[in-house]
Amino acid sequence: MRGRPVLVMVIAGVVASAIGIALGLTIHWFPTEASTQLGDIKTLYDVIIIVSVPVFVLVMTVVIGAVVRFRMRPGQEDQDGPPIHGNTKLEVLWTAVPAALILGLCAYSYVVLRDAERAPAATAPKEINIAVKGQQFAWTFTYPKDVAGGKALSTTELVLPEGRSVKFDINSEDVLHDFWVPEFGMKIDAVPGITTHYRITPNRLGTYPVVCAELCGLGHSVMRSTVHVVTEPQFKKWLGGQNKPAAPQGASPAQLAAAGKQIFTGASGCSGCHTLSDAGATGQIGPNLDQVLKGQSDAMLHQDIVDPNAAIAKGYGPNIMPQNFGQTLSESDLNALVAYLKEATQ
Amino acid sequence: MSLRAPGLPRAGLGALIGVGLAYAITVVARALYGWDPVVDGEAVLQVALIGAPFGFLIGLGAFDYWFYWAAGRKTRPEDHSSHGAHSWKDYFRVNTDHKVIGIQYTVHSFFFLLVGGMFAMLVRAELAEPGMQFVNPNAYNGLFSVHASILIFLFIIPVFAGLANYVLPLMIGAPDMAFPRLNALSFWMLPMAGIMFLLSFLAPGGSFATGWTAYAPLSVDAPIGQVFFTIGVQFAGASSIATALNFLVTIITMRAPGMSFFRMPLLVWANFSTSLLVVIATPFIAASQFMVLLDRALGFSFFDAAKGGDVLMYQHVFWFYSHPAVYIMMLPGFGIISEILAVKARKPIFGYRMMAFSLLAIVVLGFTVWAHHMFVSGMQEWIRVPMMITTAVIAVPTGIKIFSWLATLWRGVLHLDTPMLFALGFLTMFTLGGISGVSLALIPFDIHVSDTYYIVAHIHYVLFGGSLFTIFAGVYYWFPKMTGRMFDERLGKWHFWTTFIGFNLTFGPMHLIGIQGMPRRVADYSQQFATWNLFISCASFVVGLSTLLFVYNMVVSWRAGARAPANPWRAMTLEWQVSSPPPIFNFDTIPTVVGGPYEYGVPGAVHGVFKGAEVKTTAAPAGAAPAGD
Ligand code: HEM
Ligand SMILES: [Cu+2]
After folding, report:
1. ipTM of the assembly?
2. Which chain B residues are closer than 8 Å to A193 by Cβ?
């Protein structure tokens, strides 16, 4: 009489665990897997599901079983349960088993972590080292000379060859950011004053989002970029097409403005915060440039960029726009930007 | 309405004087240094935020006794004129009765639950669709930052202090807390912090918007609203440190004769452990915010990398408080659940001593895991693995508690009323939060999901499904004792089921969108998450509405509920052995404890007997006569 309901619970628990695990393993939890690292993390997650579903089911079955079997029935209002105070064997068991499970999970995670962070073997294709710079509210990627062909190459979108390990060296210009491509799995903060690292090996062609995962202020949610994983030949071809100077010496005003447009929509991240119809920018964080720049002189435009607190558009507070464009943009970039803004708004 | 007598009007005046003084100080200081312009809004505000609350407290009369004493004037030490409440107005005065303070704390905290909940509703309204609809990104960041800060610093932590303030002295057979005036002061520091958090919305540049974690250097560069957080947290923290000291001394020195440590109810153990955590950990958040303040106000460069500062130091100091803080928000709930499960299952707590030891184990381990919040912060790599192991190992004492509660249920006679439902809801939901917690300890998985909605889901399973469920359970359970009235059981059950279902529909899917790649703290998100976010927002409004059921039930039952008997649950602990509500000095005769607190089903067992001497109103601490058991 007493054994049977427990048997029912055991069976129900096993069945529920099986269903729970099956469900847990079929749900598409993760984004498309585009790096070997994310692959290992997904396997780890499967193991987590297999271990934790039965634990949860155990608790649920006991609670539901107790509620069904031992709920107070009419007439029992004044009854008490049996005065059981403890059971040493049981207590040792439920200390030891979880401890063992948990240490097992830790050991396995350690292996996964080591694999994820290990440098590629000497026989593998040569690793690419890319510098990542976070800045309110944009990412800049710099390819080293030896990869880019003689001269370092800075871009605002990331292009990676499939199958080659990539090591990112990450730092920040201003506040904390966090460099994350969900499809790659790994992430780390960009910290002012230090350089952080991680590596991934892309293993799937495609285009994926780059996001900032660490709250970095107003534009945090629009601090996005794109990464393209391409084949090795495509990568070479793309590298070859870069590295032409944006605005060569003595450029015509039209060339200058074209270069400025590139800076506006790309590296400096202006378009993340501002609206400017000519550039197709629809940012909502800063003033609408179509409206506020009308009739400004070159000098004023220049000042708006390098010293944004000097004149603040109505309805906006100070210190919202980054203060450091004067340092991060070269003089020729600034000239190009000013030329472009002038052309686009007047 | 005299401005000379202590009270709210004088407190308002005091606050104004505080502001005036702050203004004068900054002007004089700046003039002495020859700085120009003489008036700097930010400087005045920073000093005013420190000065005004002190003016308020002095005006309120929180320091009167100490001032009289310091000035050698006649104090009124033991007449207890400020003891007990005779009308609702007494709840708005400085009162030294732990029962009044307990209710002040609890009601005040629930007010802030509603305010913080409102902000959550606004956050979810904004997130219902991609793009920006109701607020701009700055206001959005402010909303979720204030939401989290209010719920943590002005709801969960203080409401536990409130419930314990009410029941703990009763449970250990003491006439009051050890330091009644300090107790009152602790409470009155909280409204200060709360008002500051809310006033921040009026600051130029908006409210503080750097999350409740206020990471540097963002918080150092943020607009002036940030200072409302930096300083507000100091008052909330000072309040909890003072309360914790008070609990520790009360528990150690004021137990009734015969109440040995191993005859204490587990709620007392839980608050003992929590208080240890608070006393050791809370100074660290004070430190982190002082450093931010010094960086902001005086140009120190703790966190300015360009001047040799160390950005990561902020996180180490902050999490050295804030990880233990999650146990500050859990352990008192563990105590509440132990009380309720034993009474409602009519069985002794299974493995009582292990339950007490596991609390202490959590206290110790709680200090060894802070850097698990920093796996992706860029700190030294070697710290990660030891932190993974200690973090995962905390699951063991936590598991011991869960299994002991389950064993307590087994073969009991379960009374499935509202407190019990919330207790069972807590058991299952907290288990889920604990499991996702273990998954976050595993470094590679944490690297993928940290700073995503998976974290938001985990936080809420722990804080909402965990802490808040225990709080609801406790409020229903002690409602008859506190108010002398019974609550409406039917409404209570409705409240439970709507909350339970709405809660799971709201926070369950967040695990999924987090793993899929939705970062947390974003005002806007990519189109692929639109469907789930709409779903989540709708579910969250159900939770919001269910809370109104609770408020309605509490207000109506308090005013016109059925009269509560002294011991409606047939519980054994001491607080139920006196009338509901209890007499003004708790006990008419000092109880003597003769047995364990949970001996249900043991024929003839009692926890305490009342046949000692009459309690004198001068009530010296009863002292703890150690007694073996
Ligand atoms: C229906 C009720 C609630 C809803 C809908 C809700 C909603 C949210 C949302 C959407 C966020 C994420 C903000 C973000 O990261 O972008 C959040 C954060 C948070 N909430 Fe709640 N919340 C609720 C109740 C609570 C309760 C009861 C507590 C605590 C007792 C709480 C504590 C927190 C904390 C600590 C955070 C972290 C904020 C951060 O990321 O900095 N919430 N809440
Ligand atoms: Cu960022």
Report:
1. 0.89
2. 305-306, 309-311
